[in-house]
Amino acid sequence: MKRFYRTQRELAIALNQLIDCYWANEVEEQELIEHIKVLYENNSDKLLKDNEYTKVVLQQCGKRRLSIVSKILDI
Fold it and tell me: 15, 35 in Cβ contact below 8 A?
């Protein structure tokens, strides 16, 4: 998995793949948490704007996936 993404859409796709793998029991919970924290640290400008998820990320990821991200990042 890459650490830096060029666009919000690429970041959203990576989050979707990561969370979907977790739901399919292909990724351990601790690994999911670590990856999401790394993605946030390196791409926070593409994930959040004014403490809200960006429109592209909201549309691409959906509420269920972003609720997991919010709980992990404590947003």
Answer: no
